[in-house]
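#onboarding

Welcome to the new folks! Below is a worked example of what a typical request in this channel looks like: someone posts a single protein sequence, and someone else replies with the predicted structure as tokens. Don't worry about understanding the tokens yet, we'll cover that in week two.

Example request:
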Amino acid sequence: MSDKTYNVLFLCTGNSARSVMAEAILNRDLSGKFRAFSAGSHPKGHIDPTVATLLRKTNYPTDGLRSKSWDEFAQPGAPELDFVFTVCDNAAGEVCPVWPGQPMTAHWGVPDPVGFLGTEVEKAAYTAEIMRMLNNRIGIFTALPIRSLDRLSLQKRLDAIGNTTV
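Example response:
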């Protein structure tokens, strides 16, 4: 059995909240099986402050997290991607670059905490709920027997994760 580390890219339009949370969640997995990245089609250039605070408070890794363009991952020398997941509906509808390595893709849309209107306490609670959703989906993903599934079966499972109400 291979000791391959799978490279996973999470995409969202602004790359300031959902995709960044997903990157931090998957990078917290210490099995060595996954390496996560995040990017956006129109990056905001900063991490949402509520997201940054939540990640720090819940002891998720934040070193190296930044809002960046998905173009970085389509350039020569970029990590060869095994999986690309969109976590917002806007990014799912956009024409993505051609990713090196022909990764498997799926849409795992969750609501946008950045657009939430309410008090700081309400926004923090809403952001935590989005993080819980992402954590559950990523947990299902990391439990998949990736090496033993054929490509079609794996694609069906990846798509089903995006339809999971968690």
